[in-house]
Amino acid sequence: MRRTYTSSAQPAVVVMARGPQGGGMDFFDGHLPACPARVLDAGCGDGALADRLRARGYEVTAIDIDPALARPGVRIADICGFRDAPYDAVVFSLSLHHVADLDSALDTTRSLLWPGGRLLLDEFAHEYADDAIADRFYAAPGSLPRWKERHREYHTGTAMVEAVARRFAITSLARVPYLHRYLEDESVRDAESVLGLQVVAEPRPPA
Ligand SMILES: C[S@@+](CC[C@H](N)C(=O)[O-])C[C@H]1O[C@@H](n2cnc3c(N)ncnc32)[C@H](O)[C@@H]1O
């Protein structure tokens, strides 16, 4: 079962399934502003998403804190305190749960967006995992304690959503399948239909 929530008067967004090759592209395709638009990919990893967005016509700045990921099209920078001209959208794809200082990252994100710009968060909420999910992940029974230990250092989905909500108006929040994407196994979907978390938010107007 897929659950979809919304915190505003806008209709909830029905998030479609992600293809095994496409990652969260359905989500980004559905929520990014139309081109031309400036997009910041925060915590871009190998830059694959940034490349896909560039292929769609977006002007993308892709940053990652890990110097080992430097390559053309990827800048090495910390999202916390990152300064640049305003963006139409800032995207975090499976990266915000890794960022050490959640509040600083989201303060920076808000400062980087035009009024009316968007934060897109394609994440997962490790605390939603149950025995079935953990056992599937490790292919072994009784794996939930191991799952919890593995993810202990990462921000929970709840913490990320609360931190976003303190600074942004959340226009859509959906819990969706995630693990099939990590395991590249579509058959996992039914067992983990709510692990993924997709959030669209806009900066709150100044008080
Ligand atoms: C799980 S990877 C996700 C990579 C990519 N976005 C994806 O969807 O495959 C998380 C990335 O976030 C990066 N990261 C963590 N903290 C960061 C920060 N403060 N600023 C920028 N990048 C950060 C890590 O270096 C890592 O490459």
From TrEMBL:
<dbReference type="GO" id="GO:0008168">
    <property type="term" value="F:methyltransferase activity"/>
</dbReference>
<protein>
    <submittedName>
        <fullName>Class I SAM-dependent methyltransferase</fullName>
    </submittedName>
</protein>
<dbReference type="InterPro" id="IPR029063">
    <property type="entry name" value="SAM-dependent_MTases_sf"/>
</dbReference>
<dbReference type="Pfam" id="PF13489">
    <property type="entry name" value="Methyltransf_23"/>
</dbReference>
<keyword id="KW-0808">Transferase</keyword>
<dbReference type="GO" id="GO:0032259">
    <property type="term" value="P:methylation"/>
</dbReference>
<keyword id="KW-0489">Methyltransferase</keyword>
<keyword id="KW-0949">S-adenosyl-L-methionine</keyword>
